[in-house]
Amino acid sequence: MRSIVLGIAVLAGLTAAFALGQRLGQARTATATAEAGPVEIGFAQFMSLHHDQAVVMAQTLLNSGTTRLGGLASSIASAQLLEIGQMRGWLGLWGKPLLPATREMDWMLLGKVPPDAALSRYLLDCQSAPGGMPGLASSEELNQLRALDGDARDALFLQLMIRHHQGGLPMAHFASLNTDIPAVRTLAAQITVQQIEELNTMLLLLRGWADKTG
User: How many CA atoms within 13 Å lie on the side-chain side of 2?
Assistant: First the structure.
């Protein structure tokens, strides 16, 4: 019963975060609607889509009722739902679809300078990734996350979310450097810093577990 009540409370909080994000996104973009170009639109569409899966993974862990990573998962889900709300709020104001027409990341070729070696490698990774973006978990991996329990589920969550963050960071960093809309730059920079911090935390947690079991 306690886990059901906790699950309802978490779901209510996440729903509120998404709604707040939409309101923030609309408010912050109201004066910059006409300025949105391929970089801003691509970032909002692809990053919100990438975030969708992170929220699914975090909610899967929270719904399990047997995790030592509840605080981390709740923080990731709340932050990313807020950001999804902002980005999709912008897309609504820009009159653009919430989802990209294709999974091609051509918008990342439209920066202020030609792609450097790191960005070129990332775009090659995008082309070879099944979902068009690096770091996304497969359906099989998500099913495995749902099927496992306890520490085994927690360890897989860390592995998948580490890879997920590593795959999304170049998008956020690129947008922070190449958008001319202050609100988009602020959010992209915020995502970059936030995910680097979370990535470092998760790497330390996973390394600590490996040391204990090794």
Answer: 2
Count structural domains, the chain.
1
Cα(108)–Cα(23) distance, integer angstroms: 27
pLDDT the model gives residue 66: 86
Three-class SS state of 8: helix
The pair of structure tokens assigned to 159 is 């592995």
* Long-range pairs for 12-19: beta carbons < 8 A, 24 or more residues apart: 13/74, 13/78, 14/55, 14/59, 14/77, 14/78, 14/81, 17/77, 17/78, 17/79, 17/81, 17/82, 17/85, 18/81, 18/82, 18/84, 18/85, 19/85
**Closest-CA residue to 64 (of 6, 135, 12, 136):** 6
Q: Where are the beta strands (DSSP E) in the chain?
A: none
Percent of the chain with pLDDT over 70: 82
Residue 176 and residue 202: Cα distance in Å, rounded? Answer: 24
> What is the 8-class DSSP label of residue 31?
T
Look at the block and give the residue holding tokens 């409370």: 9
Rg (CA), the chain: 18
Give Cα separations from 189 to 2, 141, 175, 192, 214 (angstroms). Answer: 38, 29, 8, 5, 37
Q: Which range of residues forms the domain containing residue 152?
A: 2-213
| CATH code of the domain in which 196 resides | 1.20.1260.10
What's the length of the chain? 214
Whole-structure pTM over 0.70, yes or no?
yes
